[in-house]
Amino acid sequence: MEYYPPVGFHFKVDFSAISSQEMDARFQSVSGLSVEIQNEDRIEGGENRFTHQLPLRSRYSTLTLKRGLVQDSAVIQWCREAFENFQFKPVNLIVSLQNVKHEPVKSWNIIHAWPAKWSVSDFNAEENTLVIETLDLNYRYFNLL
Length: 145
Hints:
Blueprint: E1 11-14, E2 29-31, E3 35-42, E4 52-60, E5 63-68, H1 74-85, E6 91-98, E7 104-120, E8 132-138, E9 141-144
């Protein structure tokens, strides 16, 4: 049993419905695993000191994945189908934070994800950097496994 907090640099993104290639599971960074409750303000007649805030629904942020540019990626082919042909095929995916034995410590099950944006970093002959592709995914919700 490990009692230390897990490190944030050992993780995996599983697009099992799209690809079983190892390169499609490796990303440089994952962000956007957050949820917030949207509120509705209600004003009560005769009460001027405050407004009532009532919970409405959960709102999930955009999931952003970054990695070095990959050739022949099934995930990017999935994105191209959406962007070029406007054919959206939502998928579920799992983001797993892993320990030193490559075992999941905590996993997030992302439900009904679809590509919203794909971008490639700038090319610059004055810098010695990798070409990074960024994939933004919208999704309905996530739950912890």
